[in-house]
Amino acid sequence: EVIVNAMSWRFDAEEVKKEYKFQPYAKAQALSAGKRAPMQQSTRQGNDDDCIRYFEGRSSTIQQYKEHFDFSIGLYVQEFAIDERSMDLLVKYVNMHPHVYDLGLSWGGVNGVTVRGIQPGRFTNTDGLWNQRYIGVRWDGDLYPGRMQ
C-alpha cells in the first residue's frame, strides 16, 4: 500500500486514514457477561469512520496466545509517531476487548497536543510503531498456541 500511495499523483492523508485496518491476528471475541466463554461480536460499530475493520485472512490471534499462556497484555504507542485517527481506533479497540488487553493502553503524550497535526505521508506510517517496526519477527498466522514445537 505504501508503494501505491507513493506512486499516486494525488495523495490525501485523510483518505489514507479512512482506510486504516487491523491485522487479522488482532481479531478478538468478546466474553459473555460473567462467563469466560467467548461470544460472537460485530466489529462494525458506529458509522464507517468509527468502525473497527480488519484485513482479510485467517490467523492465530493475540487472544488465543493470551488465553493459552495466561498472559497479561497491554499496548504502548510512541506519542510522536501516531496520528489522531490511529489513536482513536486503538482506544476504541482496547476498550472493546478489556479481557484481552487487561493492562490497557498507554502512550507518552501528556495532553494530546503531541498528536495534533501528525499525518501519514507517502513514505511514512503514523501507527505508533516508529522504529520498533524494524525489529522482531513478523506474526506467523500459521502458528497456533499448543501446536508449537
Helix content: 10-25%
* Main structural class: alpha+beta
Would you list the SSEs in sequence order as H and E? HHEEHEHE
C-alpha-based Rg, rounded: 17 Å
Instruction: Characterize the largest beta sheet: strand count, sense, and whether it forms a barrel.
Output: 2 strands, antiparallel
Mean pLDDT: 76
State the total count of DSSP E strands: 4
Cα(first) to Cα(last) distance is: 34 Å
How would the blueprint of this fold be written?
Elements: H1 2-7, H2 13-18, E1 30-31, E2 38-39, H3 62-69, E3 74-77, H4 84-96, E4 104-107
Parallel strand pairs: 3-4
Antiparallel strand pairs: 1-2
Give an overview of the whole structure.
With 149 residues, the protein is of the alpha+beta class. It has helices spanning 2-7, 13-18, 62-69, 84-96; strands at residues 30-31, 38-39, 74-77, 104-107. The strands form two sheets. The chain has a two-stranded antiparallel ribbon with strand order 1-2. Strands 3-4 form a two-stranded parallel sheet. A hairpin with a 6-residue loop joins strand 1 (30-31) and strand 2. The chain is globular. The termini are far apart. Mean pLDDT is 76; it is low at 37-46.
